[in-house]
Give the backbone structure.
Amino acid sequence: MNLRKSLHSFLAGSLCLLSFTVNAELSIQITQGSDNPIPIAVVPFSLRGNGVLSEDISQIVMNDLEQVGDFSPLSRSNMLSLPSEEQEVFYRDWRILAQDYLLVGKIDITPGSQLVQVQYEFFDINREVKLAGEVLTGSVTQLRDIAHEISNVVFEQVTGTRGAFTTEIVYVVADYISPERTNFRLEKADYDGQRAQILLESVEPIMSPSWSPTGRDVAYVSFETDLPRIYIQNIATGDRQQITNYPNLNSSPEWSPDGTKLAMVLSKDGSPDIYVQDLATNQLIRVTDHPLIDTEPSWTADSRSIVFMSERTGQPQIYQIALGASSFEVERLTYDCFQCLNAKFLPDGVNLVHVRRETRQDPNYQIAVLNIETLRVITLTNTSLDESPSIAPNGSMIMYGTKFNGRGVLDAVSIDGAVRFRLPSSQGDVREPAWSPFLN
Amino acid sequence: MAKQSIQTIKMGLMAISLFALVACSSTSDTEEGGMGGEGSAGSGSSNSSARTNPGSTSGQLSQEEIRAQNALRQTVFYFDFDVAEFKPADRETLSFHARNLAANSSMRIRLEGHADERGTREYNLALGERRANSILNYLIVNGASRSQVEVVSYGEERPAQAGQSDSAYSRNRRVEVVTR
């Protein structure tokens, strides 16, 4: 019932979104699956009432569960029966097929309206129990939202971790029109690249999108005045506001987890340093003060400290400083890399995701995770120009920008490195993904 | 690459000037006279403005003027990987830019710093600014006024050449002088 209510409000909210849609959508490709996936059967949902639906809900659920990796959905052609509700389920049919879990459902189209009712039920085959089930109601245009919501329930029931299938991403696309002209777009899409919308278009660069913790706004850098300046835009209404106009560089906006402040990089006092602007009072606090480059701020979960990159020892390394601390009280977090850049903590506050160039001789920039207690480093990628890692709000996956066949693409990798998927662009260079917080 | 072609132009001009001295010829063009395009030293200087006047110092002056013109024609300065300081070989050329700014106080320029795509975007944005600042500081020390120069970094967002080759990367690590 709770879920149903929250879905209602979530769906109502999503109706207000900007109506631009982009034809050049990103389409997902699974590049590496889990070694030991969980077998699950997702039976095609039965349809009652007249009409054809634009989306296949059970296929979307299967895709969700497969691309985030821990699941191996059973092929529909191998199913022995096609139940759509509990009394049609015979556990034996699914045990024979070595399935651990079963999802069934049915869709009702209310005659003469745009409303659909989707009933789903989720079963544990080995224990022969129903784990979850409910009826979700929405518009026919919201079938993808309903499907992702069901994926959330299945994922959480099986893994104990909240699903992030109803989250979204923003990212930047650069379209090279001619040597003199590149079109830059800030776009938003579902986490799987579907339903892309343009938030901003410009012939000048757009950089560094960052979500507000409520998911209502996005901050970014735009060069539209010929200079890099920070803007905040309401995603639903498109209303936007320039919030910085300091001399020289204004970059890297990063919302504090409590939503009250924006960390940023300014070079108004000479060299790039980290600053924090209070969004209510506009008060600006200088956090670092060093003649060499300090940049790429990110926040610790308590909104009290900032992790940043500095080349104060000659090459980029990761440091941490508490707000209000003196600039001498900087803690260095990385040592064993030639360059470590663009770091942010996973939700556990112990594992630090970063971009890593291992040695001077090794020209590759890859995504890695450093456990700051054990100092163990796991490199998660095997491409060479990886950057801009962004973490799913449940901490399960990292999306990042890289190059594939000379084009900018978004890749994602699970936190254990076992599963990867790619969102290739059909047009332009795609870069700088920012994964939203939980949105409902 | 641009550095090389500039040097080629200089050598070409010296040869032409010497030839002009020997021939005792003179031309009527002013120092504003047209030069050939970048990299075409020979043909460019054949119709050049090499005023010569044997026995006086004005020949040397005009040589200086030509060198100044050539220097001002170089508006892109290239940088080594991960290096924020301009190349020592560009010092003389930049001195001419500084003197030109000092002599024309209403002149305004913009230094646009760029980086190749390796490393993160934010770091490259900062690196592009450091590159532009290294030229800015040199121009100021040599006579330009701070108010004449605006600095902006584009980081890796506006590559001069697409692709992942070393030659593309070396063309992208640059500061462009844009007259406003």
